Amino acid sequence: MTVKLPRWANNSDKFSLFLLLFLVWAIAYSIFGDEHVGVNSVIFRLAVLFIVAKLAGCLLGLIRIPPMIGMLLIGVLMRNVGFIEIVGDYAKFTSVLRQLALVNILLPAGLGLDANALRQMGGMIANLAVVPVAIEVVGITILAHLTLDFPWLWGSLLGLLLAAVSPAVIIPCLFELQDLGYGVDKGIHTLVIAASTLNDILCIAIFGVMLGIIFSTQSLLMQIFYGPIIFAMGFAFGAALGFVCQHVPHKDETYVTTLRTLLLGLGCVLAALGSNAIGYMGAGPLGCMVAAFVASFIWKKQGWSSNNPVKANFVLLWKFFEPISFALIGVEVNFSILETNTVTWGLLVLCVPLLLRILTSFATTQCSNLNVKEKIFVALSWIPKATVQATLGPTALVLARNLNDPVLEGYANSVVIIAVISIIITSPIGAILIMQLGPKLLKRTKTVHYRNFGFWLRMTVHPQLDV
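Structure (tokenized):
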């Protein structure tokens, strides 16, 4: 007998998330009282922000607009109408939430990396992570010097900040396309995820070096070895954690999926928060990717090749962290600091080098086995910017204010303004382009029933594929 479910049950996963969030708030209220989690507290306003962001994402999904755009815009709106402003200890709390969200999206990305594709495309991954980035950084440095009178060091700092791409935007979009079967045969998702991760690690590491030179926060020796230390720490911790997760717990353990999820997840949370605490924040994301990849290498041989339940757990958890991640990015956008002159020239500084990067990325893939449409898709995948810009954008301003230097503070304020512009413009445009052009530019090798942006896409499974 077939039981007909009520209409609301089709969205029971979203209802469950709202209910869980309410229960967490109610428990916190019972413990800490009205002062800390009451209706006038920052915690309560954060909860409202996340719920409204999730609802906005669902509504935009109904008209085939990526939900993350709605979540981002709700964060921008609530910050600029005065509903919420995160300062003091709450800024540290939301920073931790952003780190948790980043770990959550990096783990399924690492678990989904294809070892064979990495071996075959290692040279192209390195080229995409270095050559186009260098072109964009140089372009931004020169334009910032000519239009905004930035010193060369400050122009380079801005270039490294803007050249980083957003894993929080790119990876979920690639997951959507991958699950629909687009680009799977050529390993497009592995190529873009690996190259974008390496891209961000390089930008974050060199950004730290430039910051140290400008503000003289480190010795010359430490500035020289800052980047290599980040790579060494990330690879070493990730490889060690991945090796442990390969063998602990044993594959025949009753609760192996739950234990592997907790061990890998908490280990990577330690990597992200710990590396940030000791001043090497780039090592954390790298460690997460390496740990997930190393662990999955053996797990696949144990039968988790096409259906990894640990990855499924993190994908489910992303439903909770997605509105948190994008709403908090939106909250960083403060219209009150925008200055007309800086915004005008900032648009030029942002867009022209980005266009050069897209063209360079397309040229970099010419010696690959990708067809023209796939090369165009790969080149356009580097547009979204959000996570790194929201995290590192205010760093220089904080240091400048501590030194009480008005000249340095002026440059740092311009860096923040242009970082805000990059988030507002590139995040929604990049997400829309990836999701709308992906099905047109990439070959589909398998088709499945898959829920995309809030509606069901019905497709036929290829008879030779085990989906």
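The chain is about 75% helix and 0% strand. Residues 447-467 have pLDDT under 50 and may be disordered.
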